[in-house]
Amino acid sequence: MRSTNLRFVAIPLLWLLGAGACTAASLSGTVTDPQGRAVAGASITLLRRADSSRRQAVTDTDGGFAFATIDPGEYRVTAESTGFPIVTQTLAVADGENTANLQFRAVASQNESVTVSADVSDAGLFSPDPAQRFLIREETLDANPGRPGMPVSIPGMPVESPAGGIKPPQYFVPGVAGDHGEPIAMFFQVGGFLFQNNLPVNAHGNGYADPNVIIPIAIETVETDGGAFNVREGNNSVNSAITFGLRERLEPTVRLSGDARDVNLVAGWSPADPANKSWVGLEVSYGNGFLQRMEHRRQYKGNVSKVFSIGRHDLTIYGIGYYGFAYQPGLIPIDTNVPGDTIDARQREETSNGALIVNDVWHLTDRRQFQFSGDYRYYALDVRPNFGDGLIRQSEHRNANSEDVLYAEHYSKAFSLLAGMDVRREAPRALDLDRANDAGIFQAVTANNITINFYSPYVAADGTVLRYLHYNVGYRGDAVTMDNQDLYRPDFSFSRRAMISSPKGTLTFLPPEAGAFLPAVSLSYGQAFHVDDPRIGTTAMFGGTIVSKARSYQLAASKTIAQTEFRVTLEHVTTAQQLARISNDTGLQEDVGPGIVRSLTVTARRNFSHGFVQALFARADARDRITGQPTPEAPRLIWDVLGTLDKLPFHLVARGEYEDVGKKPLGDGFDSVPVREFRGAVVRPFERAGIDIGVNVFIARGYGGQTLETLAMVEQVTGFPLRSYVTGSFTYHLRRR
Predict the structure, then answer these.
(1) If pLDDT is split at 50, 70 and 90, which confidence band does 16 have?
(2) Contact at 8 Å (CB) between 71 and 54?
(3) SS3 letters across 231-246
(4) Looking at the predicted structure, is the pLDDT value of residue 435 above 80?
(5) What's the rounded Cα separation, in Å, for the pair 52 and 360?
(6) Which of 316, 315, 395, 382 has its CA nearest to residue 351?
(7) Burial zone of 93 (CB within 10 Å; 0-12 exposed, 13-18 middle, 19+ buried)
(8) How far apart are CA 365 and CA 323, in angstroms?
């Protein structure tokens, strides 16, 4: 069935009665200049993060503004005025009266952020899972300056990426094995649309995601949540989902970072008119990394975004262009000196990527909206690694597209409705695995042409009842069809279909103000699924299912004490036996057995007038439910401390993060070594000249990507060495004040 026939299948059921009465909140505040004087005529934009609904106002002669009758939830307030840098606050709006006072700064690179981690009580129709959503301050987004490959560091989520930065980084939540093919979803939020960045059945593994295509200065927020609890997050969302939120405007800036081996140039531009919500960004990287192996890396990115406000429509268009090439050092034994930090000088990888995403939010009324979204993506990959079993080549090219329609209506505080349909098609072609012989000539191992279609209706209801109970219940139904044409083994070809029902539910207790000693508590349940690799494994050889299911349970509690927010999250996830990982040696599917994951996460956060500090502890255990043995690479212990200081002597600003990832079992009695990393930056702004000068530090000990491989007929722990470095950065702001 063609996607155009399904696009509006849910709409006739959604035209219900008009919005009922709703208890609403209000927001007011003032805007001042750096000296504290009122700024009249400033443009104020209020954006509700959950559904991208937008309202605007202009400050009066006293610098005041007000928004009446708005829904509670998380909002972004932006103030713009000629002669000042844009200033933004992110805050949680509760029932009743709320205030937000903004002050322009003379330093262009510093934006405000009031709340960085969303409160448990901020669960809503578009964001039902309140447990693990972190909004990251601008100062922490540039977590690895001068080194491509890791656009942000997400607190408590270890990032494992080789030195070159061409291979996409993999973010791993506690209890998820550190290998490609893991069920973590990644999205870009374009307007109100979640563009799914994962490429199922990739030549390098299921769930492969590439956030490298985003220019770091364009990222405004990063949120993590339990993908199993949101009806809009489907395939590849068994355990967690990561959403990158993009800016509507960029300050015109050119930033040059580098050291003796690498150079990175980033440029961004927006029109001078604050009402013009558009930007263009470019990034170019050259270098050789920090390992002995010269990588000869080249990386080019182009991003463009435009928001059109036409009547009751907010139309967002976002485009991506990306190309990367590097001679990748690859994994080496962690206890053996390897010349050049590589076991095979022929290792290399090359990727290209292009996408166009469109989202239209049609505000029928203040409480009723449609969203129409679509995207097209082209992707090509050529990776040539050696994991000790000889050089292999994994390659593919594909076209992917999706269409999505969504309807949402707020009837009352007790009931809101969301319903929609997502149609998606992935078409990997020349999905090949080749192995080099002794003469270095590649011999074919597998070759497949695959077509995957997803037809996914979803519906959710949300509201607050009995004053103190917030609920969100939903259902997602996915019909997945997979056509696998095996070009070398016709007997392995198949066409198969699977139906997956994914119920979701979250119940949150919101304590009354009188019961200030009580925490907010949230209970969640959800079922999700993950696409298996069809080339060789249980799917092709034994007629197994093309999808793997998982059930997830969660308990979250939060409480603010002495202006410090504390949060505790408990998770319990059970996975199906056919949930696969991708073998490093063959690039093909391996089952990991039915698994059970238990994790505990504790965070504490304190905001100050000129910065914040946040500490996180996470402990996870993951085991095979049959054998009781630990799932290789999954159980882990994490400590993370993150902080910023916006006001230091000599006008300096600083940011830093320390992360300690404990050892993890790798299988067959082997354990990894702990990893310790510190990222820091000190920046000196010269506002009159319109420049910032910074020093960026990365201090590390251990190995990334640690796994168990057989080298020279001996099992060994392998990884890539983490090396410390210092880079300098120079930023020029094109519009000086």
Answers:
(1) very low
(2) no
(3) CCCCCCCCCEEEEEEE
(4) yes
(5) 10
(6) 382
(7) buried
(8) 42
User: What is the arithmetic mean of pLDDT over 347-361?
Assistant: 94
Q: What is the model's pLDDT at position 187?
A: 92
CB 550, CB 573: distance < 8 Å? yes
Residue carrying structure tokens 């769930």: 207
Alpha carbons 327 and 298: distance in angstroms, whole number: 10
147 and 722 Cβ atoms separated by less than 8 Å: no
Q: What is the DSSP letter of 6?
A: H
| pLDDT for residue 457 is more than 90 | yes
Round to whole Å and give the CA distance between 672 and 705.
Answer: 10
As a whole number, the mean pLDDT across the chain is 83
- First vs last Cα of the chain: how many Å apart? 57
CA-wise closest residue to 127 among 114, 116, 118, 115: 118
Q: What is the mean pLDDT of residues 689-696?
A: 88
Q: What is the pLDDT of residue 313?
A: 92
Could you tell me which of 130, 107, 103 has the C-alpha nearest to residue 119? 130
- Residue length of the chain: 737
3-class secondary-structure state, position 137 = coil
CA distances from 370 to 19, 104, 457, 535 (A): 14, 35, 15, 39
Predicted pLDDT of residue 21: 34
Structure tokens at 266: 């980033």
**CA 545/CA 448 separation, integer angstroms:** 18
Nearest to 680 by CA among 654, 647, 712, 656: 656
E strand or H helix at 524: strand 520-531
Quick one: what percent of the chain has pLDDT higher than 70? 84
